Amino acid sequence: GKLVGLELCNFKSYKGKTQVGFGTAAFTSIIGPNGSGKSNMMDAISFVLGVRSNQLRSRNIKSLIYRGRINDEDDIEGGNDMDSNDENDIDSDNEIDNDSQNDDNQAYVIAIYEKDNKDILNLKRSINGNGSSSFSVNGVNVSVNQYLQILKEENILIKAKNFLVFQGDVEKVASQSPLDLTNMIENIS
Amino acid sequence: GKLVGLELCNFKSYKGKTQVGFGTAAFTSIIGPNGSGKSNMMDAISFVLGVRSNQLRSRNIKSLIYRGRINDEDDIEGGNDMDSNDENDIDSDNEIDNDSQNDDNQAYVIAIYEKDNKDILNLKRSINGNGSSSFSVNGVNVSVNQYLQILKEENILIKAKNFLVFQGDVEKVASQSPLDLTNMIENIS
Amino acid sequence: RQDLFMKAFNHVSNNIDEVYKELTQSRSSPLGGSAYLTLEDEEEPFSYGIKYHIMPPLKRFRDMENLSGGEKTIGALALLFAIHSFHPSPFFVLDEVDAALDNANVDKIANYITKHRGPNFQFIVISLKNMLFERSDSLVGIYRDQNVNSSKILTLDLRGYAETV
Amino acid sequence: RQDLFMKAFNHVSNNIDEVYKELTQSRSSPLGGSAYLTLEDEEEPFSYGIKYHIMPPLKRFRDMENLSGGEKTIGALALLFAIHSFHPSPFFVLDEVDAALDNANVDKIANYITKHRGPNFQFIVISLKNMLFERSDSLVGIYRDQNVNSSKILTLDLRGYAETV
Ligand SMILES: Nc1ncnc2c1ncn2[C@@H]1O[C@H](COP(=O)(O)OP(=O)(O)OP(=O)(O)O)[C@@H](O)[C@H]1O
Ligand SMILES: Nc1ncnc2c1ncn2[C@@H]1O[C@H](COP(=O)(O)OP(=O)(O)OP(=O)(O)O)[C@@H](O)[C@H]1O
Ligand SMILES: [Mg+2]
Ligand SMILES: [Mg+2]
Q1: % of chain A surpassing 70 pLDDT
Q2: Most confidently modeled of A86-90, B46-50, D4-8?
Q3: DSSP labels, B46-94
Q4: Do C144 and D58 touch (CB under 8 A)?
Q5: Interface with D, mutate which of B30, B49, B156 (most D CBs under 10 A)
Q6: Which residues of C touch A68 (CB under 8 A)?
Q7: CB–CB of C161/C140 below 8 Å?
Q8: Under 8 Å CB-to-CB from C32, ≥6 apart: which residues?
Q9: What pLDDT shows up at residue A124?
Q10: Measuring from atom 18 of ligand 2, which residue has the nearest CA?
Q11: Are C9 and C37 in contact (CB under 8 A)?
């Protein structure tokens, strides 16, 4: 099978709906300047496959949702500088409205996957208001275990994650401890 | 002041004596293919300034000494493959002689440093047979504390190490814990 | 459980040298380097570990800790690709794995990917180096649209363009 | 002890924003981003910590954990250069700090170094990117001499050559 495309909705730095297609290409490169959103795209792929948010550079699932404004709670504790920022940002009230509108919309990622027999699977993982996530396959809600089982049938083993190499992690793979290496092999066995 | 040049003797991948001059350049780049010895050159600079061997990718001081042959003790436990390597390497006996010749020579690094008043300091740190190291300034043996004091007068604060950024460490500087950051500031105060 | 583990271990162990050689062959070293895995304890593989040994081309055997950044990266990719061949997942996502590589090694990774990609082995690679991304079938360009404070996407199929010489 | 600490802290805290702006200014953002340090506990700086906050140009304020690899690298270099200005050591040695940077940011680092280098501020930089090393005064080329199984060195003073256009 292969990953044919993705749809992101309010995921990390992607506001609203964003679609990306990989078409029939077997080798796709993602390029762009620093801070543009490349690793966030990989986070979207990892998220929709069931990887936990703490491995996606986020404290919790809710911080994966797109945030337009300066609304990190702990940022406000950052001292006076923060207040002066708000003043400069006179349209910030409008911004807040926008933002809460975003918060109304849920955030989700859909992976469009084509199986070897050309069947299409729409794998969707959404973030709910209460910080939990729900899973669906072709529009039908499923439990997380059913979801992971469907992935496993496609040899997508989230526990092993040997096919996802996050930024800065590659060298660690070679110099990991012997026990970690055993673990890695065990996860694929 | 400035670092005018270096002399390495049997240090890491540098066999025998190697000299390098930075001349009057205020911005020097070290370039070369992967595995050629660039980071080893930085290790030589760090070593001569008093940085401990465990921060130079080495288990102990002796592994900083140039090794020509396959002579890692733990390598030999690596299984049959090792034996077949030795066979291929039929001149390995000669190699061993070479190597023990190397071991006769000690290993050292000299940093040639020019003070603001144009005085030259030859800062030397050598590795002794028993795995300890000794320090000398312009040919006169000094204790490690005297050595570090002379460096401190030049604002070379080895404890802070804020002027040495090892390969792969730069991002960690920005995301270090608040207590580590306090430590960093304290070391320069 | 032990049988399954040993099956996986033996598969990877038999493959790793071939993959590593393919990633390290060059004009100056047609054979490439060598790599292998050893079990710290043959009897109880679970409770002990697996040691990974690499010998870059033209070099003496070195412990992992002595290898350079680029040498470790190549060793890591060889291990990942060897493990992948056991239960091949349909795709790989690699985020700037070429950061520590010199141009010669970037070229070797590009060669490996273009040779092994296919309908059942899809590569999605994030890279800042044109020597790697210009070899791909298609590009996904990401930029930040300042007006709406959001990341945006452009896609371009490279297969329509003639090979740049 | 506390006085010395506060003196260092205040110096770095007053400098960090200026250095960060210098490293992040560009045509699209003439002002650059902003950066500052806060003490977690004003009374007892030793026992608590110092928090470092960065706001890349044209972005909302973000916690360190949300920043990208390249954004963190620029933030780290700004902090290192700001700390350096307190008790300036005579030289800096930087080993492939440009690995995560795109070309625009490599150029900014090269500009900063060429502007601040001088008789009392020497930069020794290890790099694989020609956009950085071609800006230096001199080059030290390292290669492996296979015959003697050793690293060897060549030096080249670039100042004699005309600027490449
Ligand atoms: N929940 C969120 N809402 C809005 N923006 C976010 C959110 N989480 C992260 N970001 C933004 O995403 C940016 C980081 O993006 P990302 O890590 O994908 O960059 P990148 O393209 O990988 O860059 P690099 O080449 O430096 O690695 C940060 O600047 C941050 O502002
Ligand atoms: N004691 C030693 N004796 C001989 N060779 C050594 C010794 N210690 C390390 N080496 C060799 O040095 C090489 C690594 O060099 P170094 O880390 O300086 O490379 P580099 O030029 O920084 O490469 P990269 O660009 O990949 O970071 C290893 O391949 C190793 O074989
Ligand atoms: Mg990234
Ligand atoms: Mg290196």
Answers
A1: 80
A2: B46-50
A3: HHHTT--GGGTT-SSGGGGB---SS--HHHHTT-HHHHHHHHH-TTHHH
A4: yes
A5: B30
A6: 149
A7: no
A8: C20, C21, C22, C23, C24, C25, C26, C57
A9: 98
A10: B37
A11: yes
